[in-house]
Amino acid sequence: MGPVSNYQGSRIGFALTMLVSTFILGCKLSLALNVDSTSTTTAATTASTTTNPTCEYQTVFIDHFNSLDLSNWNIVSREKNHNEELQFYTDRKENVRVEGGMLVITPREENYGEKKWTSGRVTGKNKRSFKYGRFTVRAKLPSGLGLWSAIWMMPQDAVYGEWAASGEIDIMEADGSRPGLVSSALHFGNEWPNNRYEGVPLANPFDGTCPIREHDLSADFHDYQLVWTPTKMVFLVDDEVTWEVDLQRDWHLDPNTKSPYDAFGQPWDQRFYFILNCAVGGWFLQDPVEGSGEDWPDAQMLVDFVQVEQRDGDDDGLCGVCKPYKRPSPDTLACRVKAGLTEADVSGPLQWVCGDENVYVDVDCDAIFASHGVSDDDVVTKATLAFDAYYKNGGRTDTACCFGDPDGKSNCVAEVVCDSGGDDGTSPTTGAPTASPTASPISMPTTSPTTTLTATPISISTSTPTSSVHSSPTSAPTTSPISAPTTSPTSAPTTSPTSAPTTSPTSTHTTSPTSAPTTSPTSMPTTSPTISTITPTATPISNPTPLCPTCKLKEGATDFSPALNWVCNQDIFRLSCPDLFPPGNSEKENANIAFNHYYLGVVDKQGDQGCCFGDSDGFSNCRTEVVAAPCSASQPSPDPPQPSPHPPFPSNPNDLFVTADSAVTLEASPVPYSFNVIIVSGTLTIDSNTHVRARRIEVLPEGTLVIGPDATGVLIELLHDDCRGPSAPHPDDAVAVATSTCLRSGQIVSRGTTRIEASPVTSWTLMKANANTGDSVIEVAECHGWVPGATLVIANGALQNEAQELRISSVERVSTFEDETESTNSFCIIHLASQLTQHVHAFIFKTGPPVRQEVMYLKRNIVITGRMYGLASEPRHRQGVVVRQHKTGTMQISHTRVEHCGRIFIGEYCLHFHLLNSSPSSFFRSNAVVDGISKGITVHGTHHSTVEDNVVYNVMGVGIYVENGKEMLNNFFANVVGCPTVEGCLCRGCVPSQSFGDESRQGAFYFKSAKQNFVDNHAFGALACFLIDYESFGSMFLPSGKMEGNVFHCKSFGWYPTNAFPRNVVQDANGIVDPTSCRAFKIDGSDNGVEVVIDNHTEYDIRDFGASSYEFSDIRFTNTRIQGRTALYQKTYWRSEGTGAFCYKCELIPHQFVGLNAAGGEALMEFRDTILSPGVFSIPHHGYVNGGLLASHYWFSGDVSKVSIDKIYDEGLSDPNAIIMTVGDVNHFMDRSRAAFDAAGIGCTNAFPDSPKAMTCPSGNGKFRPIKIYSDGPHDLEVTVTDPTSGAKQNYRFPHYNKKSSFVDIFAQQDGRIVYGGWAFTVRAGAEVSLKSMDKIWAIDFGHRGWDEPVSILLNLEVAGDEGGRIQGCTIRDDHVRRFMTPYGPLVQSGEVNGVGIHALCS
Q1: Closest C-alpha to 930, from 946, 910, 912, 944
Q2: Distance of CA 639 to CAs 721, 870, 933, Å?
Q3: Is the pLDDT higher at 1396 or at 233?
Q4: What is the band of 621 on the pLDDT scale with cuts at 50, 70, 90?
Q5: Which of 44, 800, 841, 1397 has the most CB within a 10 Å radius?
Q6: How far apart are CA 1088 and CA 819, in angstroms?
Q7: Backbone dihedral region of 189: left (phi > 0), alpha (psi from -120 to 50 degrees) or beta?
Q8: Which residues form a coiled coil (predicted)?
Q9: Could you give the residue ranges of the DSSP H alpha helices within 25-100?
């Protein structure tokens, strides 16, 4: 809310522009004066009927304010203000709350602190920030003197300096005393007080439009919008353009100060977050007078929703306003007289009253009427003359005017209208603006009667033929008791999705109503469905005998020497056996002593069942093993206490059918509801404080299941059979799994609409300060909804092996004002029930803020649970419950705990979107998925869904999974996946087809399609934090979506796509890849690669490797910090045309005895403005297996002041290579035997004893480049080089090199083969290089693309027996054209070179 005065241009000029020239055509916005009105109308009509296929915005964020989700918003609490404002912003519900699906901000006149007014503000700082897109806030503004409501955005990071150098975007500001006007502005330039601003002043956004919109913006909701692309910002109200700004210019306007910007478009190239507030007073408007609050006691700023839409690969243009509406022609405005008026109504001192400026302009009516000879009773002519005199001839552009008494619009006799009515002198009918959809996509029928089930008997009517609750045992399906009906109603509710049931959802009917409510908008059934309830009984259902872990001695085992170990998964725990085994014990007795000491005493709390007592080499020589056996009376079941043991488990032989014409509510009750299966075709609502037991809950396509919003105390207990054993289907047999009768139990399966929303809590947060071992108090950033007794998990820090699980003793919330930022300095002090067992310290890089550990909150107010069979066994022997949205419908689950979940069968996961295709309304948000197996959250065959702010902990297998490689642009935002120890959450022997992600490379996140938006996620403890592997050949070439803000600390790998070649891949609406678009080359042979940027990325404590990939291309890291054993771990790299530096503004910290494992071939790998400490390289990592002719060039460019190459390892490389490293103007090359210049003569020496072939050359010796000559050989290549400095000639002979890379064939998609053999050597720029070959030369490649300034050599070529191949005096530059070139060599076809001929390389 910066300054808004002194704008460039006048309001009238701007409004005239909007009147005469703004229209939409084919998604293009045209702004020009003097546009012919006829053509304008035609264009607008065309736009209303044409859909531009390029308008592909997808919703990436929407908040309908069903609750105040603190994972999205901060509630500001502070007294200090800017802009001379008078309010105290508080976080009280009196000022900020959610009510009726709206965010309600209420200004109040009251003494609070030192202030006399209070109000509310929410911000998205550090929660939600965005760059580019279509932003919509639907709001109703308050009216009243001194009320300053605003919808605005501030930069997430002060990249260009403090306010306003980093920018401010004011989407809408309004003065409550003038409720018809809004303004917009941008703030920029230098830091205050040398900042600048531009914008449009307070104006009616609907001037000159037909139909005339409601002038008082406080009277209704309106859409306040911003469309933001890299080149433009367009501000709109209800799709009407109010201001357009060209961003591609220099935003530093003060010639007397240094610019904070170094490129056009800055600072509008960064992420901004929302701020919504209603201030009181300030320089922008007239302050209220004490006591004036009585004039606006009901003033509220209401926000219906906040929506952000983005598109993949934003470009210039305004698809954001490509909507089928027609803009009006200004010529259709006219003045009409209200019907029934008389001469008396137009006599006296009438005025034109224009409410948008509170301007009362006198018109000399008598003089005008007399000059035209108008009779006294000609009211229409009088009004028209007055209209022409004031409105048309006076150059007015407002449309909210009336001709009437001086007191305002209350007594208008004539007004400006749209000329679309009849000619009878009456005003035409003008409709209200069409409202954008505002409600949640969850449908609620409006015409169905509501049934409430309670836990006590109610009257049952038997006179009606329909039944909403089918309780008769004989009416259940004749098949399996958990089978769904074979047919289902197909009609979905036809009423508004936002309507609530017409009868109270909490009323209990004790008699059948005989008539529908008279207020219902549509007719209801004249008879009521049968209403029944089931009274819980004490008859228990027999459960399987609980099993406990015990130690079993293997037959024939005798050797129990002191050197034996308990081997548990990969953790080896040595016991001091002589101290444990009393003399004379039997082997079995000794085994049980060791078992009890280690297992029950040490790791039982971890559920570690995969142990044996034997040699340290693993399970191969176990003497004993842990098995499951019936629990003895003295040995409790290892399974956690089952939910709600009071009263005894009731028996209910009936199914609950909620038919399509009914709405059923399960009310709060101390007694559980118990059903066999629940089948929902209508609407089933479950109230707070309700416990529901069922073997299966199935929501049919026309059905709706609703729990919440803001539900508390809800327990959904899914009963299921033990399906393990010999008769179980094979884990990968999808058909057998899907048709298994046994596996149908223990599931929530929805094909309709499911919405489960508990009262919100902070799902996870970060430590606010360090804490030490023995402390029982910690500080965290947020703690909304946290309560004593709940469990926290603090992630392991650097060099720590375990996370800490702790219980909360008490919670203190602290809120103070910090500085000039628009967020409060609030945090929480958490008192723990026990002491920390290890310190909790931030990891410190040289750049950027400290990296603090994650703190998960595992309690939720809705719990979906069930028994985890086999908890005393390894994960592969366990079986839990399942929640799935299946093929159709929408699922929204938020703030819910899902536990004891997942199965070792394909498709049987804890939370699962299954084959929904495009489903932007589906989301899993702020849930806790705990103690599961196989997969925590899965997105399969689904696009545009959202998985956000979830915590997944101790799920053995993959935490969050994208399953088949066809998925597109799902949003994975701010999730945390963690394992109890750094050995990962391995699920050994679970689903064979998924073992790579579950076991060998166990991934916190495991994606088989990279084309997802992946932002602000965290992972710890897994083997691989972010693993991308591929289900199909085509998915390997999918480009990524947004990749930014992620933080990883895992054992083996951080960012880890095994092989990735992002290309311009085409997918249809179902994600199916067009295989022709996967090709490496376009038709002309140029690269088909697409740049993928990983921004603001952090990895630390990666103990085995680092950010890794084997074969990859066109990946860039920007603003990245990585600390790990290798920091980078790569094999082959390729850089397509147009791809920027591999690492820009990076900080890389490898282990000093290992170094960066950089790729061996075959491109320019650039590190610009990067810190490398220690400066250790291991070159070329696996290049002799995977990388072409081994001619990579590593270039540290830009600021190299913090790069010092201390050591180079060559990994025992025996193959010839032309690998070069350049730091500033110092060159290192890895193979002196392939140096085609006098290395010793220019002062090159071996500076690294560990790499005897490597040489370092001092500065001042020019630029070094590799040259690669591709041939099938097999002869030596003769080379003569003329030195560029001395002119001396030297002769060389290089043997042919012909080792095939393991990945060569991946490029041979277009017909032909890759020539991967040949010769590579290093030359100095400016040299003359003469080549003589006995073999056919397929291609020559000098240097690499990507250098800031090209260099060249003079090339001569002679090929035996090929006179046409002779070249003499060819100047070839390192930026020469490359066609059909791969990281491994050129693609050739039918004996001919596909690429550019060698002669054509000469410039």
Answers
A1: 910
A2: 16, 8, 15
A3: 233
A4: low
A5: 800
A6: 49
A7: left
A8: none
A9: 37-49
Residue 70, phi then psi, degrees to nearest 5: -80, 0
Residue 1140 predicted with pLDDT over 60: yes
> Three-state DSSP class for 319?
helix
Rounded to a whole number of angstroms, the distance between the first and last alpha carbons of the chain is 57
How far, CA to CA in Å, does 1016 sit from each of 153, 849, 858, 1022? 19, 15, 20, 17
> By three-state DSSP, how is residue 1302 classified?
coil
Among 273, 234, 233, CA closest to 63: 273
H-run or E-run covering 427 = none
Any idea which of 209-218, 866-875, 1269-1278 has the lowest mean pLDDT? 209-218
Q: Residue 273: what residue type?
A: Y
The pLDDT-based confidence of 545 (bands split at 50, 70, 90) is very low
DSSP string, 657-706: EE-TT-EEEE---SS-EE-SEEEESSEEEE-SSEEEEESEEEE-TT-EEE
At residue 827, φ and ψ (nearest 5 deg) are: -160, 180
**440 membership: H or E segment, kind and range:** none
Sheet holding 565-568, edge to edge: 547-553, 622-630, 611-614, 565-568, 571-574
Nearest to 1359 by CA among 1387, 1398, 1385, 1386: 1398
DSSP 623-640: EEEEEEEEPPTTS--SSP
Catalytic positions are 168, 173
Task: Round to whole Å and give the CA distance between 43 and 25.
Answer: 6
pLDDT at 411: 59
Residue pair 1081/1134 in contact by the 8 Å Cβ criterion: no
Record the tokens describing residue 1167, joined without a space: 């590190």
Distance CA 1393, CA 1377 (A): 14
Contact (Cβ atoms closer than 8 angstroms) between residue 580 and residue 564: no
Q: How many CB atoms lie within 10 A of CB 730?
A: 12
Q: Of the candidates 643, 1058, 618, 636, which has an alpha carbon nearest to the alpha carbon of residue 862?
A: 643
What gap in Å lies between CA 166 and CA 269, rounded to an integer?
10
Three-point CA angle 993, 924, 502, nearest 5°: 135
CA–CA separation, 1099 and 1010 (whole Å)? 19
Distance CA 828, CA 783 (A): 6
β-bridge partners, 1117? 1094, 1143
Which of 432, 428, 401 is CA-nearest to residue 339? 428
Name the nearest CA neighbour of 666 among 872, 854, 454.
454
Joined together, the tokens standing for residue 592 give 């049980």
| CB-CB contact of 261 with 195 (8 Å) | no
Residue 358: band (very low, low, confident or very high) from pLDDT cuts 50, 70, 90: very low
Q: Which two tokens mark 1305?
A: 């064939």
Please name every residue paired with 413 in a beta bridge, in sequence order, or none if there are none: none
Question: CA-CA distance, 962 to 959, in Å (whole number)?
Answer: 10
pLDDT higher at 786 or 56: 786
- Chain length of the chain: 1403
Position 362, amino acid: D
Q: In a 10 Å sphere around its CB, with 0-12 CB exposed, 13-18 middle and 19+ buried, how is residue 1249 labelled?
A: exposed
pLDDT tops 50 at residue 110: yes
Give the angle subtended at the CA of 207 by the CAs of 205 and 210, to the nearest 5°.
110
C-alpha span between 842 and 262 (Å, rounded): 33
Is-contact 1176 1207, C-beta < 8 A?
Answer: yes
1141/1166 Cα distance (integer angstroms): 5
Tokens at residue 575, please?
């016991």
Tell me which residue has tokens 């610019």: 259
Q: Which helix (H) or strand (E) holds 690?
A: strand 690-694
Instruction: Name the amino acid, one letter, at 1021.
Output: G
Nearest Cα neighbor of 886 from 700, 1036, 1031, 744 is 700
- 1142 alpha carbon, distance to own chain's centre: 23
Helix, strand, coil percent values for the chain (each to nearest 5) = 10, 35, 55
Q: What is the DSSP letter of 742?
A: G
